[in-house]
Design goal:
Keywords: Copper, Cytoplasm, Metal-binding, Nucleus. The chain is α/β, with parallel strands linked by helices. The protein is 36% helix and 17% strand. Helix 6 links the parallel strand 6 and strand 7.
Length: 251
Amino acid sequence: MSEGFLMEVCVDSVESAINAERGGAGRLELCSSLLEGGITPSVGLLHVVKQYVRIPVYCMIRPRGGDFLYTDREVEVMKTDIELIKSHGADGLVLGALTEDGRVDTELCVELLAACRPLPVTFHRAFDMVHDPVVALETLISLGFERVLTSGCDSSALEGLPLIKRLVEQAKGRIIIMPGGGISERNLQRVLEGSGAQEFHCSARSTKDSTMKFRNPCVNMGASLSAPEYSVKVADVTKIRTLNAIAKNTL
């Protein structure tokens, strides 16, 4: 990385993907349903995003929201999604799986990594739900993951900063530690300086109001905690440019 850092932006739409690249993102994590923390994007979304951006696109492989303990049928879905997404031009994949006692599911990860080859793979924030992050990191290194995305097993990367710093020191360049979770213009400098990380992950979104003129306020298409029907969250070019400038000045 000639600039000394890489900014990955998490996106769930073509508009956000375009905005992220315009703002200076070095890589995209493409998902659907960021309200659930991200699940596998559709092949159609990947196909169109690849037509509009030039930076690498890593796709989330996560069949549902919730925990990271998967059934045999969910594993079938994950393996099928991996093959489909690889065939439609993904540059890398993002996944994770845990056992019921909060350890990295080594057996399943070996199978999924084999299906992903030769593409690079990031272990996502399932890492933040592990019982012992020090042991888990060594497991991910031995399995061959390219990087791990983590908030330091806390509510945000800023809150988890002490652990992220320890993980960077433990990794010693054997795996990339990428802080993510609540990163903004207000805390990015502290996260980068305090962790020693060279990559970071953000969504940098703003609310965009719907252009619908007729609105029915009585209907909600999802659960009670779902997003409003007449607005969407979209990656904000200005926010991303600001984060890019902060990173350049910090690293």
